[in-house]
Amino acid sequence: MLHKKYKHDIIVVLAVLGLGVSLYLAASHYLGVAVPCTVTRGCETVLASKYSSLFGFPLSGWGVAFYAGVIVAALLADHYVLWRKLLTLLLGIGAIISLIFLALQFFVIRQICQYCLVTDILAVILLLLDLNIEHRPN
Description:
Layout: H1 7-31, H2 43-47, E1 53-54, E2 57-58, H3 59-77, H4 81-109, H5 114-134
Antiparallel strand pairs: 1-2
Helix pairs in contact: 1-3, 1-5, 3-4, 4-5
């Protein structure tokens, strides 16, 4: 059971991990450097696919914005009810989008990017953790 005092701190720590992976992918994109893909061997295919950008902006950049927003919202969630609700909303949207991206990798592109997999699974885990925190009796 999560201690009430540390409940959003865990979300911050996991979001920092997601932010780090997203920053790595974004930097690789803008520097034109291929990412090593030793586990799944599909990173280049996924990262070069037509699904790798949204509105001309790479998904890794959207990931940076998402995880930065989660960090800010989680840091403020212990103090303000509005931020707690915004955190849940942000994580819900992020988890739905991540599930869509996972489906695209598995069923459309048929290649898996290990870094994308980490950020997508983290988004789902963060939502489940947040729902567990918010709906558990004190």
